Amino acid sequence: MSKILTYLINNQHDIEETLLQLVEAESPSKNKMLTDKCGLVLKESFETLVGGKVEIIEKEAVGNQYRFTYGDGTETEQILIIGHYDTVWDQGAIPIRKEDGKLYGPGTFDMKGGLAVTLWALKALKEFGHFGKRKVVFLVTSDEEIGSEHSRALIEEEARKSEMVFVPESSISHSGAVKTFRKGIGIFKLIVHGKSVHAGIDPWSGASAIDELALQIADIKSLDNKEEGVSINIGTISGGTRTNVVAGYAEADIDLRFRTKDQAHELEHALLDRSSFIKGTMVEMQGGINRYPLEKTDSVMGLYQQMKEIALRHGYELEQGSSGGASDGNLTAGLGIPTIDGLGPVGDGAHAENEHVVLENLPYRAALIAELIKRNSR
Ligand SMILES: [Zn+2]
């Protein structure tokens, strides 16, 4: 067992305490007052445990965001760790409780557990005087659960200065496997304008936006391809006014998922390039690719191999897995920066009422991150 892991095991109680404090400061993405309070808890934890440079990025619409820096480093490229402290839960929506060695509560798994183990990973490195050649920037944002609109530019700016990115997001449920692949996502809105007329008097002089929408949907769904990992979900449709009126307007919201950047470009093109089937209607597709996939590149697999070796030395088997859901890791991976995701603790129930983390191996998960930093910054 490494010195780092022994140290972290000896601090099990305090690691749990750090996590509990973060969870108790509930932080629904859309409540700036509450999220800011949680941000302060995070800031204090960093100052007490690690004590590096703290920069606050003030935000008006969402909680303030934080850039914590550990070490000075002589290498120009930094190691970037990204996380978010907002959760999907309204205040009081699910209870916080400890049971059977697990901590249940809002954001325990997604991803305050990941924030707590990262803080303790840095604390352990500091304790042993490890300041590597690369400085470590721990960037924590406040709007990941609502699309990262207010943090995307910041994340991308930091990623461009980085050699690699670690994302202590929730791991694969139960197994704790890290994520070496995430699908990309596109968000589109299809708008159809028709010509509204009386459905009885002279229906053929009109042009139904709903009929056109139905044809468009059938056409769009033909791009869905399970084998290629491409899925298209028409999530909502609406349109028309009354049964006796030919619909003048209809629209649909579309969610696209894909495996590769090449697919993304092809699909985006196919979706945006629309013409109408029915004379007299007009179609307009809005939106586009929101996040590129986190692809399983050689450099991502290299990071996974390192983690696997570190885990083995601690007596753990560390698996890898993939997710159909996107995270901010997709943003950094989309820029071509090697990104490994799902480094948070073992647990289950992200966005679900049984959300929890397993407390027993928090020290091990913190040690994984600490030693991964150590290896890559010396
Ligand atoms: Zn998350």
Beginning-to-end CA distance, first to last residue = 20 Å
CATH superfamily (homologous) name of the largest domain:
Zn peptidases
Shape: elongated
CATH class of the largest domain: Alpha Beta
The set of bound ligands, ions and cofactors reads: zinc ion
Approximately how much helix is present in the residues? 25-40%
**CATH architecture assignment name of the largest domain:** 3-Layer(aba) Sandwich
Beta-strand proportion = 15-25%
Largest sheet: 6 strands, mixed
List the helices and strands and how they pair.
Layout lengths: L2 H8 L1 H13 L7 H18 L3 E5 L7 E6 L7 E7 L12 E3 L2 E3 L3 H20 L8 E6 L10 H9 L1 E6 L10 E5 L1 E10 L15 H13 L9 E9 L9 E10 L2 H12 L9 E10 L6 H16 L6 E4 L5 H6 L4 E3 L5 E2 L7 E3 L3 H16 L1
Parallel strand pairs: 3-6, 3-7, 7-14, 8-13
Antiparallel strand pairs: 1-2, 2-6, 4-5, 5-16, 9-11, 9-12, 10-11, 15-16
The structure holds zinc ion (ZN).
Zinc ion binds next to helix 4.
